[in-house]
Amino acid sequence: MAELVELSIKDIEKIKALFKSVFTVEPWNDDWSDEEQLDNYLRDIMEVRTPLIFGLCDDGEFIGVSIGNIKHWCRGTEYFIEELCIRTDLQGRGYGTEFLALIETFLKARGISQIFLHTNPGVPAYSFYKKLGFTEVTDLVSFFREF
Q1: Rg (CA), the chain
Q2: Which of 46, 89, 124, 129 has the fewest CB atoms found within 10 Å of its own CB?
């Protein structure tokens, strides 16, 4: 059984290594070759007022990370997940499901009643979250402007 551990900014190097190994390959193919940009991105989402960062370990090996923060909203307090990943070679083996179940148990014990996240509809994560009972919010729209 995998174990949930709380992480912090002091764990950024191992988080960077896992993040880069997952998101630079299919289906993401993100270009994280600029180490400074990756470091800045992770610090942007980890050094917030109420960070909540989890690691998933199996037999002492770091295999997953969830980077998020606590947000207070009119419907209650939520855990907003900015990034979540499981080591690529272990995906499809139930670790993601177990990871989210462990996170949910942790959150419930602290009175946090919701998880909120964003993903793209054309990636495997979309089906994964739907399978786990996440509800798609169809009345929200994301906007982007490049200049």
Answers
A1: 15
A2: 89
Which domains, ranges and CATH numbers included, belong to the chain?
Answer: 3-131 (3.40.630.30)
pTM value is 0.94
Give the number of other Cβ atoms within 10 Å of residue 60's Cβ. 6
Nearest partner of 9 among 41, 50, 46, 48, judged by Cα: 46
Q: Are 77 and 113 in contact (CB under 8 A)?
A: yes
Q: Which two tokens stand for residue 89?
A: 């070679």
Give the Cα separation of 92 and 31 in Å (integer).
Answer: 24
- pLDDT value of position 75: 85
Q: How far apart are CA 40 and CA 37, in angstroms?
A: 5
